[in-house]
Amino acid sequence: MNIEIISNFRDYMKESTNITTLELAKELIKLKNTVVIIAKKKNQKNRKNVIDNIVIYRVGVLSKLAFFYNEILSMSLGIRRIQKSMKLKFDIIHSFSAAPLLVLRSFLSKIFARKAVVVHTMKSYSRNKLGRSFYRILNLVDVVTVPTKVFADRLIKKGVKRRKIHIIRSHINIDKFVPLNKKSFKKKYGYGNKKIILYYGAMWHLKGCDYLVKAIPKIIDKNKDVKFVFVPRSVDWRVNNYKKQIKDMGMENYCDFVLKDVKIEDYVGMADMVVLPYPNLIGTEGNPSCMLEAMASKTAVVTTALPELKEIVQHEKDVLMAKPKNIESLAFEINKLLSDKKLQKKLTESAYKKSKEFDVHKITKQFIDLYKKLIS
After folding, report:
1. Residue 129 contacts residue 101 (beta carbons within 8 Å)
2. Confidence of residue 14 (pLDDT cuts 50, 70, 90)
3. 69-88: b or e for each residue (b if 16 or more CB lie within 10 Å)?
């Protein structure tokens, strides 16, 4: 099959969208498909470049005021140029977004690929209020996929036809995130015998970092041998604000901010726990990659009791779940996990088995089966 992936593929390679898009494309190519990723051109010199043998085709943008062209029409015109230059016709146009309105990218692309089947994946809830509107427009495409039943029910209530919706989970690379010898890796990175509490990813308030930072004194009060390790996706004013806040609390000796590029799978593998204090999942995948990666690494997880998360993991079986937006509850669950090695082992063993369900090989196979069904 000839497959076109429409994605917000950015310059920043640590961006989770880039990682998951490339992993899906690689697996599709392994299964003898032709795959091209199309995205907006920003700082790149060339319109077309290749990453890991995958063609990335960039479309130009106009002034910031030209929203319709930049975000929607440019993708459709780009597909026309790709088909002409590569002398092929796409069988599948698969677009990804958080905002329903962006489904127009793939829908209008059918002008130039009339026989193509259009699949649109809603990866998360948009951070933009306007991006959480216009759900009915999703009915324009052949199929809409979402990562959770909670998300599917939400779309149905918003007017998306039930028959259009398929639940296909988000994926991780379980060949990359594997259990490690925590002691040896702590020694390698200079953490000695410290108990490592890890947070990694974007440090936005939407991710709940405020609650974790404010919980630090309550955890240190009972656990002096703890080290909080923060590995932010990018360094900006938010990170500096958190560093200042931690210093003002007198907690800087218990915290480490890793601001350089690192092999993140090593940090996840050596941590005693990963804490993900989501207040909600706006701007976060329904199956958060960080949680799944920790599970695959046999690292315990403390997160929050959100409906989307409760759909895929269970409290005190796979992870511990605090009340969302509750500092006391978050500190309580972290302290409970630190003090109970049997609970740690129980959670990590169960979560490790569950993580296999999100293997990129399995998820890609589900997409392939869906593509074939739609084409036939």
Report:
1. no
2. low
3. bbbbbbbbbbbeebbeeeee
